[in-house]
């Protein structure tokens, strides 16, 4: 569910930069992604790894909704990570949220739910597939992979999204801008091949953009502890 205005404003006030405060108020009021993620990762026993966390709004939302006990946000932009850390400190959430300046090659050793909101289309096609593989490596057997992304489609919403992405690039909010808009099959196929059930649905909310939510979970898997103490996913049909 959407946060009430007082809670949204309270979160926004934790950000020192005026542009970040405006961004937080708008996103928390209009973007349905945060509520969707909170509903999907409501299992508080698993940590949430947010790849491409930006200024950490998802973590702030999950805390306000009591939807996660441990949140780890990573982003390759040190400016956004600094803003996320400052906001977490201002909110008194240093012990609940961990922010790291990192990329897909150096993700923290966390296994739980994995979230990527509006990340993949800023990478070339080959790197998108590499990031999907990295995300899978951090997904717990009972976890949920949540991806919100633009999908390439022949409609006016896709072109409206491209216009928005142009302004995001020239504003400097997303240096380099969009690199490759994937089709649904490009994202869903490798996940299904890895043994996940995949569902794709529209998630544009009150926006004109071509935004979709992709939710993936292992269909029949369990965790088996190996003799070396590590864990590995086994198909229920294959494991003893």
TrEMBL record:
InterPro entries per UniProt: Methyltransf_25 (IPR041698), SAM-dependent_MTases_sf (IPR029063)
Database matches in Gene3D superfamilies: Vaccinia Virus protein VP39 (3.40.50.150)
Keywords: Methyltransferase, Transferase
GO BP terms: methylation
UniProt superkingdom: Bacteria
One Pfam family, short name: Methyltransf_25
GO molecular function: methyltransferase activity
Domain Methyltransferase positions: 48-143
Listed name of the protein: Class I SAM-dependent methyltransferase
High-level lineage: Bacteria, Pseudomonadati, Pseudomonadota, Gammaproteobacteria, Lysobacterales
